[in-house]
Amino acid sequence: MSIDRADLASALAEATGWSVTADPHRVTFINDDPPQVVIWTVTDSEIGQMRYNQNLTSREAGGRQSAELGTLGSLLDEALGPFEGSRGVIRGTDLRIIE
After folding, report:
1. If pLDDT is split at 50, 70 and 90, which confidence band does 26 have?
2. What Å distances lie between residue 50 and 29, 47, 61, 67, CA to CA?
3. Are 72 and 92 in contact (CB under 8 A)?
4. pLDDT digits over 57-78, tens only?
5. Burial of 6 (0-12, 13-18, 19+ CB in 10 A)
6. Which residues contact 19 (CB under 8 A, 6 or more apart)?
7. Whole-model pTM?
8. Which residue, 68, 73, 75, is CA-closest to 94?
9. Rounded to an integer, what distance in angstroms lies between the CA atom of residue 99 and that of residue 89?
10. Are 72 and 50 in contact (CB under 8 A)?
């Protein structure tokens, strides 16, 4: 399944409040105040797996299944929120930021 990276960037920017760009190999999060850059190297397959897991979690909690890209926003917002460094990397589905 191919992920539209422009749609992904837009959904994640709305969910996280960071400026977001995306290409076929990475998603870049940029915060201006304080200046921060976080690069997430992720494949379409990994994004698909994360969306699937979020859908299962939603259904288990009595919610509706949603295949929208915005379902990843809360996960990434939780990862970005406590980050205090200036540069970081996220690899794949492990949403811990490495400085």
Report:
1. very high
2. 18, 5, 17, 10
3. no
4. 766 656 665 657 777 888 899 9
5. exposed
6. 13, 29, 30, 31, 32
7. 0.86
8. 75
9. 6
10. yes
pLDDT tens-digit series, residues 84-96 = 999 999 999 999 9
- 61 vs 18: CA distance, rounded Å: 28
Q: Which residue, 93, 69, 83, is CA-closest to 15?
A: 69
Q: State residue 37's pLDDT score.
A: 98
How many whole angstroms separate alpha carbon 83 and alpha carbon 35?
11
Mean residue pLDDT across the chain: 88
Residue 1 in tokens:
């399944």
Whether pLDDT at 36 is above 90: yes
Separation of alpha carbons 13 and 42, rounded Å = 16
| Residue 80 pLDDT greater than 80, yes or no | yes
